[in-house]
Amino acid sequence: MNSRDTQNAGARSHVETRSDGDVRIVVMAGEFDMDNVADLRTAMDPAAPGVARFVLDVAGVTFVDSTALSVMLQPALDRPVVLAGTVPRRLARLLELTGAEVAFATAASVADGTVMIVPPRQG
User: Fold this and answer.
1) In three state form, how does the secondary structure of 43-112 look?
2) Of 5, 11, 55, 71, which residue has the fewest beta carbons closer than 10 angstroms?
C-alpha cells in the first residue's frame, strides 16, 4: 500500500513522502535550513508508527544546514536511514566535515534503498 503526501516550504524546498510497506520514502529537493525544516521534520518523525526504515532521495538537494542535518539524523538513532541516489557534492561535504556520513547507509536508487540489507550501526 502506498500513500503520498506532498509538502512545499516556500519556493526554496520541496518534501514529498510516500510509504512502501514499513519504509517511508522522503524525496527532498532544494534548500533546507532552520527557516524551512518543518515539513522535513514531519516527514522524518522518529516516532512515526510502523516505519522501520527511512529512504531519503537527496539527488535534488542544493543546500542543507546543520538544523536540517539534525532532522535527517534523528531517526537514525534507532532505525536505518538510507541516502538514495547521487548525493550532491555540497551535502556529501557537510556529511564528511561533521562525521555524519557514518549514520547513513547509501544506495544507488530509492528502489535499492527500500530492499537493501543495512547492517546494524556499531557504537
Assistant:
1) HCCCCCCCCCEEEEEEEEEEEECHHHHHHHHHHHHCCCEEEECCCCHHHHHHHHHHCHHHHCEEECCHHH
2) 11
The single-letter DSSP state of residue 12 is T
Band of residue 2 on the pLDDT scale cut at 50, 70, 90: very low
C-alpha separations of 120 from 41, 66, 67, 76, 83 in Å: 24, 24, 25, 11, 16
Look at residue 4 in the predicted model and tell me its pLDDT: 44
| Helix (H) or strand (E) run with residue 39 in it | helix 38-43
Q: What is the pLDDT of residues 107-123, one digit of tens each?
A: 999 999 999 988 766 55
113: helix, strand or coil: helix
Coil, strand or helix: which one is 9?
A: strand
For residue 63, what is its C-alpha cell? 543546500
Nearest to 73 by CA among 88, 56, 93, 60: 56
